Amino acid sequence: MDVREMWLGSQMSVKILEMISNRVKRRGFNLLEVVIACFIFSVTTLAFLGVWGMQVRAVEKSRHSMVATFIAEGLIAEARSLGYERTVLGLEVFDGETEPYLQVETEIRGPDGTWNTSTVKYHAQRFIQEEDVTPAPYDDKVRSVLVTVTWEDSSKVGEIKLETLVAGVF
Amino acid sequence: MLSGTAIRRRLQGATLIELLIASSLSLLIMGLLWYQMQAGQKFYLRVRAQGDIQRGALQAVRWIARDVIHGNAGNLNSFTTPVIGMSFASPEDSAGATTYADTGAIEWRSTVIYYIDDATKNFYRVQRDYPGGKQDYPEPIGVSLTPAAVAGNLSMKPRLVAEHIIDLTVERFPKNIMLNMKARQEALGFGISVRTRLEMKN
Predict the structure, then answer these.
(1) Any B CB within 8 A of A70 CB
(2) Region of A12 on the Ramachandran plot (φ > 0 left; ψ -120 to 50 alpha; else beta)
(3) Among A142, A141, A128, A133, which Cα is nearest to A170's?
């Protein structure tokens, strides 16, 4: 083996060693990389925690709309049971002179054992009117019943509307 | 070009300190996530139970409203012994039948009783048909409301209306009542009070 071959051989072994070292380099993470990854993961996780607050508010809103729907369904059912002839045309307000139609007071016990209360007032009204029924061969009479329930708590106001038809058969 | 020492250092991997720090951080994050998952699960269960309590209280109000609208305002009474409850005369019997006299007047057929079982906090409805089937006047207040009579009536087939009801009060007015119903579950730390005015047409 001459000097040139020895030189080429040493160059090849250096190349092989460099390839091995590159592969080894790709295999693991150093501490800085792990810390940065943990930091990003923590920030993302904490950002997701903010969703809880939104969920609490969404649950409260759904609770209010559930009560409002409950009220509206009752008033719709009453109108349907009365039927076409016994329903009264026009606007009917179900609130009392001084109080709402329904008042719901929610109590939640805090960590210190005291009960915190919040009050929501629900107002209800029903509007009944004659509806034109077409086409002409049908002479059924129909009234539309629109129930509106609004609610108010300390900071927000909400509203739902339910509508149905009551038909008279003549 | 890398020297032999540099290559050896690369091949060594992470040190024990690095591993410890990395695993501590991983544990910390996993603990945080576990805590949040537990809190989320508790939150979900609590919300579901709160919804059940609220639905029960509203359902009870609807039952009473449906009965009371045909009931007799002058006859209605609320009581606290032997249990908390209310009763009134109804033109419907327990089978739902209603009749009118030849004069067109309502015939009274039963007494409806709502009451809270003190031990279980369940809210029940009982309907007691008049012994004679029907009569042209609602049973006077007091006849069916003595503690013994109420206790006797409660032994009839009660129908469960709602759970966790702890109080029921009724304010009487000439043609309507103001109903206050309170439901609460101590273990859950949640309660709800419903207050509404109910019409009485008879």
Answers:
(1) yes
(2) alpha
(3) A141
Alpha helices in A87-135 (DSSP H): none
Tell me which chain A residue has its CA closest to the CA of residue B5.
A21
ipTM of the complex: 0.73
Dihedral (C-alpha) A63, A67, A73, A79: value to the nearest 10 degrees? -160
Tens digits of residue pLDDT in B42-98: 888 888 888 899 999 999 998 998 888 888 877 888 888 888 999 888 898 888 778
Give the predicted TM-score (pTM) of the model.
0.72
Radius of gyration of chain A (CA): 36
N- to C-terminal Cα separation, chain A:
119
Cβ–Cβ below 8 Å for B21 and A41: no
Query: Cβ(B32)–Cβ(A45) under 8 Å?
Result: yes
Residue pointed to by tokens 């369940």: B122
Inter-chain touch B65–A74, beta carbons under 8 Å: yes
Interface contact A7, partner B, CB < 8 A: no
Q: Report the distance separating Cα B7 and Cα A31, nearest Å.
A: 19
Contact check, Cβ <8 Å, A18/B190: no
Contact at 8 Å (CB) between B88 and B69?
Answer: no
Chain B residues closer than 8 Å to A45 by CB: 29, 32-33, 36
The answer, for B192 touching chain A at a CB cutoff of 8 Å, is yes
Q: Searching chain B, which residue's CA lies closest to the CA of residue A74?
A: B62
**Which amino acid, residue B155?**
S
